[in-house]
Amino acid sequence: MEESSLTAAPSILDGDNYETWAVRMTIHLQALDVWEVVEENYEVPPLGAIQLWLK
């Protein structure tokens, strides 16, 4: 059976809702499995490396 997931985008940061926004953004990024980019010293590989990897 196929798995599917649907995540709603977090609310827009308007200056008064930082606490709520930060929690929702963290959950959103974790659901997309990209939170490690924020939490770790993530380095984006050069464009050429990505193109070679895709071949």
Automatic annotation (TrEMBL):
Residues 13-39 form the DUF4219 domain. InterPro entries: DUF4219 (IPR025314). Pfam families: DUF4219 (PF13961). It comes from the Eukaryota. This is DUF4219 domain-containing protein.
